[in-house]
Amino acid sequence: MTADQSRQLGLIYSAALCLCATASDVLELARGGNRLVDRAPAPFSVAETFESVRSMIQPIAEEKSLALRLVHPVPERRVGHARALSRVLLNLATNAVKFTDTGYVELAARPIDSRRLEFSVRDTGAGFDPVLQRALYQPVRAASANGRHQFSSSGLGLAICRKLVKVMGTELQVETHPNWGTRFYFEVDCPPAGSAP
User: Fold this and answer.
1) Torsion over CA: 65, 83, 23, 150 (sign)
2) What is the mean pLDDT of residues 32-46?
3) Which residues have CB under 8 Å from 56's CB, separation 6+?
4) Which residue in 184, 188, 193, 185 sits closest to 169, CA to CA?
5) What is the torsional sign of CA 94, 100, 106, 112?
6) φ, ψ for residue 113, nearest 5 deg
7) In degrees rounded to 5, what are phi and psi of residue 179?
8) pLDDT in tens, 81-132
9) From CA 176, how far away is CA 123, in angstroms rounded?
10) How many other C-beta atoms can be found within 10 angstroms of the C-beta atom of residue 173?
11) Which candidate, 87, 57, 77, places its Cα nearest to that of 168?
């Protein structure tokens, strides 16, 4: 394969994986969403979770010449709901890459205290009007007045993220400013793997 063919295949692969994950989440939401999060937290690697997300969005980021930044906590081995965290981060990072034309997308996990982490996905896109935040998590949205969406037109990805984060016992929050970008973030209990009871 040529480099262009390889890049295009990567885009198709990333899109297919994202679509499969979203379809699975939508079906689970329709059933009530009780199985979106594993019942018991388990040891996992934040670095591996970030790398998995990066591998799926990298082809799209490369097409747009966007940098992908990863910020891991120390220690990075934690106890938590890895599957749910991965799905939230993938949804948010996919949106971030989709709606950012220049600059970077950053996935970060920063310690709040000895047990809690703040996970965030930040982009350097155009941001959006804070007035639109009320409609942000609605499962279906209409197009904006100029016909251009400033975030996912269906709203399913953010609705799923919000549900997943809520099931983990916290709230998904957002900050956005024109010409600065958007940052989605949430705090969750994620103690170091060695110190978990």
Assistant:
1) negative
2) 75
3) 14, 17, 18, 90, 94
4) 188
5) negative
6) -150, -160
7) 60, 15
8) 998 899 899 989 998 999 899 999 999 999 999 999 999 999 999 887 767 6
9) 10
10) 13
11) 87
Map tokens 């990333």 to a residue. 14
**The token pair that represents 35 in the structure block:** 């199985």
Residue labelled with tokens 């979106």: 36
Q: What is the pLDDT of residues 138-189, one digit of tens each?
A: 654 444 444 334 444 445 678 888 888 988 899 999 998 888 899 999 999 9
- 61-87 as b/e, with b when 16 or more CB fall inside 10 Å? beeeebebebebbeebbbbbbbebbbb
Three-class HEC string of the chain: CCHHHHHHHHHHHHHHHHHHHHHHHHHHHHCCCCCCCCCCCEEEEHHHHHHHHHHHHHHHHHHCCCEEEEECCCCCEEEECHHHHHHHHHHHHHHHHHCCCCCEEEEEEEECCCCEEEEEEEECCCCCCHHHHHHCCCCCCCCCCCCCCCCCCCCHHHHHHHHHHHHCCCCCEEEEECCCEEEEEEEEECCEHHHCC
Q: How many CA atoms lie within 13 A of 112 on its CB side?
A: 13
Query: Whole-prediction pTM value?
Result: 0.78
Cα angle 91-95-99, degrees, rounded to a multiple of 5: 175
